[in-house]
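--- STAGE predict ---
source: upstream dedup step, 1 unique chain passed
mode: sequence only
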Amino acid sequence: MRSEAPPDPHAVADAIAARVMGAPPTLGAGRLVCVDGPAGSGKTTLAAALADVVPGAHVVHCDELLHGWRGLPGLAGTVESLLEPLARGEQGRWTRWDWLADDWAETHPVESGGLLVLEGVGCWSPGIAHLVGVLVWVEAESSLRLRRGIERDGEQMRPQWEQWRLDEDALFARLGTRSRADLVVVTG
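--- STAGE serialize ---
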């Protein structure tokens, strides 16, 4: 089912929660929502709203799973490694990328069951499609997204943001993520 959703994050989160929690589990005994789309579109805000409306939901920000600015190609494999044990009813785990130290940091456990929300550019891939209860695509106008990124990270990061935008465009074109989404959210 495709629909354009209202931009109020809590209204969207309510609709997602009703859909995913009303359906059979897809991730072992748990459920999985992927909130994907280009950088700066509002995915983190929507994931936080989803955690607000589903008590005990666990949110993993996939920018913490990237191996730096050029780590997007390896993200799908990292996400699959997190989800495989969860699908078997076992504990999953992920290791955080420390952007300041430019190295891997601590490891975080994820218990099986409940609702897991993955948010971030490239959090969905065909390799995990069978585990996803709801795939949400969040988008915003390109110049707004770039402005949000530069405001957050500083003008000195513009070259990284410009390359990132090329990398994410290539990934989304290859995977067709937006066309596979159950829900499309346009922010402004």
